[in-house]
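residues and backbone:
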Amino acid sequence: MTTPLRWSKQSPLQSFLLLGLLIFFVGHFVLLSPSSLEDDFSGMRVINPKDLLSLLKNEPSSLSKTPLPHDVAPSYSLRDLTLLSATGNAPGFKLTARKSSTYQKEELSHLREVIVELKDGTRIESQEAIHDFKKGEIVFLGTVQIHLPGGADLFTEQVIFYSKPMTRILVPRNEALRGIQHQGKTTLQFTARGLEYIDQEPKALKLLSEVRVNLRGEKGAEIRSDFAEYSDALGQLRFGMRDNQPIQKQFVEVHEPDLDLKSRILELDISNQRELETITARTDVWFKDTHDQARPSVGTGGMGIYAVEKNQIILSDFPQLYQDNDTITGDTIIFHRDSDTVEVKQSNAIYNN
């Protein structure tokens, strides 16, 4: 009968096993001893989270007046962000940004090199923006450019884009803006303070205050008013004055090198070919033409239409025209500026020789 194998002090297998365990424990304590750790990682230090965030920053200082949570890490950051927004089945807007840092607790996102495009072709872009999810608004900061479907380009320092309850673009009333638009042979350059654009029919672009428009064509003209509104559907730019000032100051003014005109309301009518057709002055119209310095002409009436292409002024609604000592009245007076001739319907002229 065979006797079972037993472990003994003389067993070779037992000796090898004990030797291996001994080597393992000795190596473990030697390699991971405190002195070894201190020697290997003595250059390391504990970094405050705020300092860590500053090390991760590689962007210019924010222009936002709204405090941003710079002392906490964003919930997530994205590069080359593309966001498509919709209301139901209707497309809303498309947002792209080079960098986006989103803070979920604050419900906002800090964007860099951002562009927003609307379904009608309107485009807003700037170097920085703050997207507030709760308010449904994006505040663009820095040098902001707005491109409108009609071909106008606007530049300002701050734009607020609202995505709800309706799509709206607002430049605060205290913010200066400038813009340019080409209308066929005429170029409109304008400045103002404040702007509002609503992407809802009937669409209208409003310049809120201190409006100055320069018409650059064959004859340059400048228009000054308190506010203006452009309707793309009507192809009309309408100027007006506020009534919270003395009535003698409530005039929209037009100045050309040899023509001064003023009225309570002024309308620029633009053709389908984007050409400036007429300038219509309404209520308390007055003009003075001085292209013939020796014989200036002064006209008044309830309405005046300046036909740009024909270079003539049509006065109606109790019109009167004064040349030298002569007074011309009638139902309608047409003053041809090129020839300095007058055409009258149902004339009642008074000549003083």
